[in-house]
Amino acid sequence: MLGCHNISKRYTQKGGPQIEALREVTFALSPGDFASVQGPSGCGKSTLLLVCGGLLSPDGGQVLLAETDVYAQSPNDRARLRGRHVGFVFQQFHLIPYLSLRDNILSGSLAHERGCAETSAETLMTRLDLHDRAHHLVSALSIGERQRTALARALVCEPQLILADEPTGNLDPDNSHIVLQSLAEYAQAGGAVLLVTHDPSSTGYANRHFVMNRGVLRES
Length: 220
Ligand SMILES: Nc1ncnc2c1ncn2[C@@H]1O[C@H](COP(=O)(O)OP(=O)(O)OP(=O)(O)O)[C@@H](O)[C@H]1O
Ligand SMILES: [Mg+2]
Prior knowledge:
The protein has 220 residues and is an alpha/beta fold. The protein contains 6 helices and 10 strands; from the N terminus they run βββαββαβαααβαβββ.
C-alpha cells in the first residue's frame, strides 16, 4: 500500500545551516497496519507524512503508493493518485473557514466519482459527535470540533491510506478515544494508517510502533 525506500529530505535556508529532516527512511505499510510514529519536536515527523502523501518531493529515494512511483508522476497524475488513495489529517487542520462543517467534510470527496460521500458524511458526523454543528462555519467551531472535522474529511471516501498528524493533540480523553478508535477500526477494515503522535495513549491502538530521531526512523 505504501512503500518508502531510502527517503532523504533536506531543507536549506539562505544563510542558515542545512537541515536533514529525513535520512535514508525505509519502511512499508500493508492493509491493516496502524503505525504510530513518535519522536521529539523537529525530528521530521510532519515532513515524513508530507513526503509519503505526495505533497513534498524528497531529495532522494522512492515513495510507492498503490504500486505507483509517486514522484515519477506528473503533478496532475500525482494529485489524482493522492485524491484516490490518501486521506490527510494535517497538524494545522487546513479546513476551509468559509464553508460549513458538513461541506468541509464533503470537500474530501471532490477527487472522487463516488456518490456515497453524503451518506458517509452523515455517519461520520454522528460517530464523531459533530451532527449538531453540521451547518456552522468552521470559524465558529472549537479546536476539538475542527480536529474531528478534519478527521471526518480524511475518512469520507474511505481512502486506502490515512496520514494523520497529531489528530488527538487538542482533544480531551473521551474525544481522543473516539478518534483513535475510528482509526483503529478503519485499519481493521483493511485500510492503513500512519499516525504521528505525542499522545502516549495512542500506542495502545496502533499495531506497529516507530520512533523517529533527527530524521532517522526505526521500528520499535
Ligand atoms: N519548509 C521548511 N523550511 C525549512 N526548514 C523546515 C521546513 N519545514 C520543516 N523544517 C525543519 O525541518 C525539521 C523537521 O520539521 P518537521 O515539521 O517535520 O518536524 P516534526 O517532527 O513534525 O515537529 P513537531 O513535533 O514540532 O511537529 C525541523 O527542524 C524544522 O524546523
Ligand atoms: Mg509536526
